[in-house]
Automatic annotation (TrEMBL):
Residues binding S-adenosyl-L-methionine: 75, 180
Molecular function terms, GO-annotated: 4 iron, 4 sulfur cluster binding; 7,8-didemethyl-8-hydroxy-5-deazariboflavin synthase activity; metal ion binding; transferase activity, transferring alkyl or aryl (other than methyl) groups
Organism placement in taxonomy: Bacteria, Pseudomonadati, Acidobacteriota, Holophagae, Holophagales
Domain annotation Radical SAM core: ranges: 55-294
Cofactor info, note text: Binds 1 [4Fe-4S] cluster. The cluster is coordinated with 3 cysteines and an exchangeable S-adenosyl-L-methionine.
Keyword Glycoprotein assigned: no
Residues that coordinate or bind [4Fe-4S] cluster: 69, 73, 76
Keyword S-adenosyl-L-methionine: yes
Residues that coordinate or bind (3R)-3-methyl-D-ornithine: 144, 299, 321
Protein known as: CofH family radical SAM protein
Origin: domain of life: Bacteria
Cofactor(s), names only, from the UniProt record: [4Fe-4S] cluster
Family annotation (NCBIfam families): CofH family radical SAM protein
Keywords linked to the UniProt accession: 4Fe-4S, Iron, Iron-sulfur, Metal-binding, S-adenosyl-L-methionine
Organism: Candidatus Geothrix odensensis
Amino acid sequence: MRNALATHEDILNGVIQGRRISAPEALVLLDSAELPDLAMAATVARDRHNDPRRVSYVIDRNVNYTDVCNVYCTFCAFYHKPGDPRGYVLTKEQLKQKAEETRALGGTGFLLQGGVNPDLPWDYYLDLVRHLRHDLGIWVHGFSPVEIQMMAKLSGQTLRQTIADLREAGLGSIPGGGAEILVDRIRKKIAPLKGGREKWLEVMEAAHEEGVKTTGTMMFGITETLAERIEHLEALRSQQDRALARGNGGGYTAFAAWPFQSGHTPWEGKVPKPTDVEYLRTIAVARIYLDNFAHIQSSWVTMGRKTGQLALHYGCDDMGSLMLEENVVSAAGTCYSVNRDEMTRMITAAGYEPWQRDNIYGEVPA
């Protein structure tokens, strides 16, 4: 295997020269490279795709239209079981209020996700998307792959046709929620009802075939090995290669990674919380390895402002969302939020020029 025994110094020199690294080489970096060396190489990789002077952010709102779910992921502190009187489904009036608040703050879209709610019919989702996009003027960055798998069953259609119908109704792009670690050993342990890695990947493949843009994610620190993290990244990189070869507009716009938040879950106290250093190491290697991804997001929402700023020097070119609303991570006990002025100050203080983007990285006029 090429360069299987190369030192991390040799591998990083290759990265700086523009060479694509292999999975074994990425594992060497993740396991043993020095942080300053990773930061330098990740920054070089970042700047191949982006203006070195600028960092983007988006003003959108994480809207969970329902918290009723029958998948019962062991790492989730947010959902309620079907039939639980505490469960909810947002009304159109509630959605309208959230949309008006979002637009008033300069926001452009909703990151729309919910539980896998068995009580909602297929027409509900089409009507929901139409209402948000056409009645309220909100970009819909919506539905995780497990939700779309459910919708395909409800509609009796293929994944591609289901996504095509959602797009015709007004769906703009698809978030990467529910990826966790794309390794079946881990998925069977933490979310056995969600399906294996292929279930998640086939939704993204269908979306890319339909010309729909999506995001890639990874939640790490839930008993996976370092090699399994690289296996996850390899699945995304290979899929992005295929998407870019099609040239139809579909593919991953960005990648985001964050550590598992175990609070209020059965995992609390059973797994060590990933450190800031581990996060920076992981995100830097992701930037280097995912050489066909244009953007890498900093996860300040889970890591806090200071580490979020540091991530900009470890390959990230995007600070993600202001998080006008966030329910899932906060349910696990991690609650970071900022307003627009604070976001631009964070980026400026880190040494960059802030610019506002939309959910597919178009620039929003000042």
